[in-house]
Amino acid sequence: MKKLAIAVVGVLLAFGPAMFAQDVVTGVKDASKDVAKGTKKAAKSTEKAVDKSADKTADAAKDAAKDTAKGTDKAAKATAKGTDKAAKTTAKDTKKAADKTADAVK
């Protein structure tokens, strides 16, 4: 009986560490799968965030272009109005000068 107990303990000592090592290998494999899943989720989230950012940038550029066009249109109208007033004022002043010159010549 003593020999049987020694044999059982010997077998446990011989195969115990091997079984423990197998558990460690399995644990490492599971952990690496979890890391891979986490990395994949992070990559998808990053991709979505980049897409949203690109859309927002495009929208902002579009809005800026519209605002610039409106501003340019207003400036052009104001310039045209100013030019028209200046031309009318110049014409009036030229007429006054011509009338004064005509009166002076008489």
- The count of β-strands is 0
Structural class based on helices, strands and sheet pairing: mainly alpha
- Main sheet? none
* Unreliable stretches covering 5 or more consecutive residues: none
SSE string: H
| Percent strand | under 5%
The backbone outline, from C-alpha atoms, is rod-shaped
Q: Any idea what the radius of gyration is?
A: 45 Å
Distance between the termini: 154 Å
Task: Count helical runs.
Answer: 1
Q: Domains counted in the coordinates: how many?
A: 1
Residues in helix, %: over 70%
Mean pLDDT across residues? 83
Note the main attributes of this structure.
106 residues, mainly alpha, 1 helix, rod-shaped
